[in-house]
Amino acid sequence: MTTRQRSISSNTDPPVRREVVLGVDTHGEMHVAAVTSPLGKVLGNESFPATAAGYRQLLVWARKRGTVRRAGVEGTGTFGAGLSRYLVTQQIQVFEVNRPDRSARRLLGKSDPLDAQAAARAVLSGRARAQAKSGDGPVHSARIYKLAKDSAVKARTQAINQLKAVLVIADPALRERLSTLGNAELFRTCATLSPPDGGGDEDAVAQATHMTLRMLAERIEQLSGQINELNQRLTRLVERYAPQLLVPVGIGPDSAATLLITMGDNPERLNTEASFAALCGVSPIEYSSGRRCTRRLNYGGDRQANAALHRIVFTRLRHDPRTRAYYERRTQEGKTRREIIRCLKRYAAREVFNLVRPVSRAPAL
């Protein structure tokens, strides 16, 4: 090829588009986006509505400034969930970005464009390394079911406490009749109470007491039915998506669902079992200074996942001979109970990760 031919060929080749990084500060009704160059220069800021059409407009606007392959989004599990799912479908790697630290805000101030720019720079610098959950499969369905179940459990506990508080100040005859009953029988009996007849002040108090006990008992029964239905749905979901989690000792459907929710529908975003342990708050934290070399508990991470691992460990201490033998051996070595529990939770996190991580994504329910 001659020099003239090479010159003509170079003039006809399409220009190579530069890569840019997208950062988004999310809100309930409006998202603020910023695009930066690989060197951190701000190429533009713009606001878009938090709607499906707004997501498309945001990405079109960002792609006019270059090729978008990475994006940092605040609140990928709340206000930014819809946008994150849309960006993932567009083959864009989405990273969860924490809000800027206070020292940076004191120096630079606080505004939505500044937060969006900080999100993009967090991706560029590597500070934002946690990939967002896809939220488009059965694990997200489990998250919704678990949310409804936790709310129902909290409401039922409150109703039970209120019913027993009313019994404390109820008429002595009624209180003595109901005080010997177990919870199940107590709720059934209260649900059948009928207000006494009469029109005096004492009868009015008795009527209010009977009606309140009946309504609280009916509420408890209704919430119990909802909890049972949600438990069945969660169990079926775990049995279909990750039945291998139910094989080891101590892992029930509720704990399995909680840990699956922490991992997300795309567990491949977690590169190592150490990253999953840190996500669950069971990785030891270096706490050394001078000649003292020690570690402390990790108080961060997903506390619900941490509680699920805690339940697994204590169930195994009661029913698993291997776990009891490990506990006794480490006790003889001088380890405290707290240190041994921490180690066992770390081992449980490793086991769960190795059971779930190799599994390919299941079809949506």
From TrEMBL:
Residues 213-240 form a coiled coil. InterPro entries: Transp_IS110-like_N, Transpos_IS110, Transposase_20. It holds the Pfam family Transposase_20. Residues 250-328 form the Transposase IS116/IS110/IS902 C-terminal domain. GO terms for biological process: DNA transposition. Keywords: Coiled coil. GO terms for molecular function: DNA binding; transposase activity. Residues 22-168 form the Transposase IS110-like N-terminal domain. Signal peptide: none annotated. NCBIfam families: transpos_IS110. This is Transposase. It comes from Streptomyces longwoodensis. The lineage of its organism: Bacteria, Bacillati, Actinomycetota, Actinomycetes, Kitasatosporales.
